[in-house]
Amino acid sequence: MIDDGEEAWADFERTRADAREQMREERRRAEKRERAKAQQETRKEARREREPQTEAAMAQTAAQKRKKTSRLDIAPIIMPTRQEYEATKRQLDYREGYIHFAVAGTSGSGKSSLINAFRGLHNGSDDPTVASTGVTETTERITRYADPNEARPFVWYDVPGAGTLSVPDWKYFNNQGLYIFDAIIVLMDARFTAIDIAILQNCARFKIPSYIVRSKSLTHIENVSRDMRRTKHSEVHYEHARDKYMMETRKNVSANLRKAGLPPQAVYMVDTETILDITEGTDPEKVIDEMQLVEDILLEARNRRVDMALALTV
């Protein structure tokens, strides 16, 4: 049996042991702080010793970047001079009294097919003025196509696709002379890309009207419908797939414009066969935004002609 004295001693021993452990813990913490402080001083000293070497390394890296930039022929986009502007107009045969449309975008987006449709021409026809089409990029240089309908004073330009080895994205707008055009169609296919944004930003800078157009829409809608059938395991109406496709496209374009700091802008979802039907005066079976796009382009032409007439009276 343990008496009160022994129990008190045991309590004291436990208390003293706890105190010793607490002192040891505080000592460990103090030693850890001292080691950390010493390591910090060591690192500072090492950094001070390395600073000249680091500055030299940074200078070498910058020189390497400049060399690489020069090798890739990268230069800032600058506003063209008056002489360059006039020279580009002569080179691309810009004529007063006409409305000049450039159709630009990534390679394979269907620029040539769209131009043919606007002009009432079928791809692959024997007409010598038809724009060449193909799976790969077929436009090597910017090509001028007059509209065969004299009631529409349009001239269409098929611009080489951006992103090819011969047309780097960053200098696409200026190198192609897009700053001379009266309006620019930015044609997208499967997705909205950085080059689309770059073209729209330059359109805003040069105050050129622009149209965002998504091509091959009937094919895209069929793809959406197929995916919906696989998910729902049932038949999907065309209208449901079309509405889903249009909603997703508008959401994607809106998000990209907002991210780039550009104002909201309409996106026209079209199929070239439908535009061809409209141009030929045939009632198309399925219409998405084709009629609206044609009407807006004709409105742009009327406004342009009014501006020209007013300019002549001044």
TrEMBL record:
Biased composition (Basic and acidic residues): 11-53
Low complexity: bias regions: 54-63
Biased composition (Acidic residues): 1-10
A Pfam family recorded for this sequence: IIGP
Region described as Disordered: spans on this chain: 1-69
A GO cellular component entry from the record: membrane
Gene Ontology molecular function: any one: GTP binding
PROSITE patterns (UniProt xref): G_IRG
Span of domain IRG-type G: 97-294
Family, as annotated: Belongs to the TRAFAC class dynamin-like GTPase superfamily. IRG family.
Record protein name field: IRG-type G domain-containing protein
Species this chain originates from: Rhodonia placenta
